[in-house]
Amino acid sequence: MIIVIIGAQWGDEGKGKIVDLLADSFDIVARYQGGHNAGHSVYVGEKAFVLRLLPSGIIHEDTTCVLSNGMVIDPKAFFEEIDQIREKGISITPERLKVSSRAHLIMPYHRALDHTSEERLGNEKIGTTLRGIGPAYEDKAGRRGIRVADALSPEVLKLRIERNLEEANRIIVLYGQPPLRADEIFSEIAPLVERLRPFVSETSHFLAEAKKQNKKILLEGAQATLLDVDHGTYPYVTSSNPTAGGASVGAGIPPHHISGVLGIVRTYATRVGEGPFPTEMLEREEDMANLIRQRGNEYGSVTKRPRRCGWFDAVATRYAAELNGFDSIALTKLDVLDALDEIKVCVGYQINGERVDTFPAVAQDLIAIEPIYATLEGWKSETVGITKLEDLPAKAREYVEFLSGSIGVEIGLISTGPERDQTIILPDSVMESWFKS
Ligand code: GDP
Ligand code: IMO
Ligand code: MG
After folding, report:
1. What residues form DSSP beta bridges with 328?
2. pLDDT by residue (tens digit) across 39-56?
3. Which of 30, 146, 151, 190 is the most interior residue, by most CB within 10 Å?
4. Does residue 40 contact residue 264 with C-beta atoms inside 8 Å?
């Protein structure tokens, strides 16, 4: 069985918590795109983990984790994260962590180029995580990237760094930064690649063999549908394909081997960085945004930037459900809304006076959206830690049903807090069957 987990909004929906929860019933967890721009927080008792590059399954010592070909890997960040997780008592060995020889490396000049690219854009900057993600994918598409397999040969690594840096330095110098030195980059990266060598593997073959042996595989999406480079709010997106189709390419598995797609949806929306956000709580709703930010702890787990907060957007989420083919949805952060008198849900868009029910392609149209809201009554009582649907206040159940109806997909899990056991799993849902089988 292969299940893909995908963020339905602009990221930070709580993918980490749900992957961690499911990982117990799965043998393998693989990431298929992105890099250390992700920040997946997982709480286990007193311990807090923030997974950036490593799959959230790494916390379960019986789970094998894979960094697949579709990822971009910063070798320094990779070992920093491994060291941090090991400090918390988790054993990480090449037996349980496999890195694709086809994944691309993020080099120090990619980080520098992420900075210059944002500077060049000025007011139109993307608000990237500045981790070098975009420039590394540019090199991949430009057929000059350095793959893990290439870097394992020191001569090739050296030549590629020299060749790529010549071009990168032209841009870096243009923006008034000192040029980087190829020999320094080589001496920093070469030992890290040596340390990486035992982890390197043919990961798609590994996954194919695991599938043959009927192992259960979870594909952990990072970022989210509306940040997808093809389907998101372009150009305010990340440079990879977090959507379900991307999982096949990025993990190197046949699409028809995927048995199910789980969407992670939050009861409201947030966005980090720039770009259109139709249901954003602006100045008029600043107090509400602050309340949600404070109750939901909405600060970037990587960059610590305060997340922009907004109401649930049914049009955007329906778009995500259609694109990814969600079989079930995990609805997170119900408890964050406990204090609200009224909750708004965007049920349609108006652009220049005209009703639009589909998600627009052009950033200008997305900016021009006037959301049409339905207003639901809040439940004004605590739902934190509730584990049974029947224990939820009636109005909270109504809210959940309203969201499910407006997306057109079952909600199979409701999350009522950051901890593993603060979860309702709905009996007889598709989601429940994934835990069991
Ligand atoms: P991800 O990037 O999708 O994995 O999400 P993040 O980890 O960046 O952000 C989600 C945050 O919400 C994390 O701090 C989680 O611990 C927390 N979280 C997840 N589910 C719930 C929930 O149901 N209630 C509350 N209050 N917090 C949650
Ligand atoms: P998780 O996996 C939220 C956003 C950045 C920026 C845009 C491009 O934790 O949900 P990039 O550095 O990827 O080139 O930045 O994408 N972004 C995220 N926003 N959650 C994430 O990951 C994100 N990863 C990237 O803020 O707007
Ligand atoms: Mg996150």
Report:
1. 262
2. 999 999 899 999 999 999
3. 30
4. no
Residue 263: pLDDT over 80? yes
User: Under DSSP, is residue 259 helix (H, G, I), strand (E, B) or coil?
Assistant: coil
Shared domain check, 304 and 417? yes
Number of domains in the chain: 3
Residues 70/249, Cβ–Cβ less than 8 Å: yes
Give residue 12 CA to ligand 3 midpoint distance, Å. 4
Cα of 248 to ligand 3 centre, how many Å? 22
- Tell whether pTM > 0.70: yes
CATH number at residue 233: 3.40.440.10
Q: Closest ligand to 234 CA?
A: 2
**How much is the pLDDT for 359?**
95
Residue nearest to atom 10 of ligand 1 (CA): 14
36 token code pair: 């250390």
Closest ligand 1 atom number to CA of residue 264? 3
- Asked whether the beta carbons of 147 and 103 are under 8 A apart, the reply is yes
- Bridge partners (DSSP) listed for residue 413: 330, 425
Decide if 20 contacts 55 (C-beta within 8 A): no
Domain limits at 298? 265-436
* Closest to 78 in 3D by CA, of 86, 70, 270, 110: 86
Atom from ligand 1 closest to the CA of residue 332: 23
Same structural domain for residues 232 and 285? Answer: no
> Are 127 and 7 part of one and the same domain?
no
171 and 42 within one domain: no
